[in-house]
Amino acid sequence: MSKKPFAALLTTSLLTFSAFAADAPAAPKADLAKGSASYATVCVACHAADGNSTVPLQPSLAQQHPEYLMKQLLEFKDGKRKDPIMAGFAAGLSEDDARNISWWLASQKAKPGFAKEPDLALMGERIYRGGIPDRQIPACAGCHSPNGAGIPSQYPRLSGQHAEYTVKQLVDFRDGNRINNETMTGVAAKMNDREIKAVSDYIAGLR
C-alpha cells in the first residue's frame, strides 16, 4: 500500500472516530442534593452524618473516589462483593442512587486518623512504601500513592481509614471471603496476620 492512500485512510478513520465520540451520550451527572438525601436515609447510621465513621469496623467514606464507591455499591447489590448487611442496603438502590451517594460522599472532607502502635506502624511503613521484595509483595504506595490518596477511578483512597476495617478487608481478600479484586487477593494471600495488622495501622495514620 502506498503512503498516500494509507494516510488518507487513517485521516478518514480518525474523523469517523471523532464524529462518533462527539455523538456519544455524556455520562450521567450526579445530583448531590439527592445523594445527600439518600445517604441520610440509607447510610448515615453506620457511616456517620459526614461519611467519617466513628465505628472502627465501619469504613470512613468521606472524600473517597466516587467511581470506586459506586463500583462497590453496585457489586454489593449484584453479589459480586459479599456482605449481608450491605447487600440489604444496596438492594434498594438504583444506579442513579449509587451515583448520587458516591459523588456526595466524595464531596465531604475526610478527617485524619492516627496509628495506635508506633512500633508496629514502623513495620507497616516499610511494607507500604517498599513491599516485601523477597516474597514478591509489592509496595502499597505503588497503587494507593505515597500519602494514601489513591488514584481516582482506579485505586481507592486509604489514608486515615480505620485500622480494624483495613485488617478485615485484607484478611477477607486473603481468605477468599472478598473476591471482587484479583490483584488484592494475590497481594493479601502472601501476607501474615502481623504484616496485615502493621500495614493497616500505618495506613490509619497516613495523611
Report on this structure.
The structure is a single chain. The protein is an all-alpha fold and 207 residues long. The chain has two domains: 32-106, Cytochrome Bc1 Complex, Chain D, domain 2 (Orthogonal Bundle), CATH 1.10.760; 118-204, Cytochrome Bc1 Complex, Chain D, domain 2 (Orthogonal Bundle), CATH 1.10.760.10. Helix content is 57%, strand content 0%. It has eleven helices and no strands. It has helices at residues 3-23, 32-42, 44-47, 66-78, 84-91, 95-106, 118-130, 141-144, 163-175, 182-188, 193-204. The longest helix has 21 residues, at 3-23. It is globular. It starts with a helix and ends with a helix. Residues 1-21 have low confidence and may be disordered.
Compact overview of the structure:
By secondary structure, this protein is mainly alpha-helical. The protein has helices at residues 3-23, 32-42, 44-47, 66-78, 84-91, 95-106, 118-130, 141-144, 163-175, 182-188, 193-204.
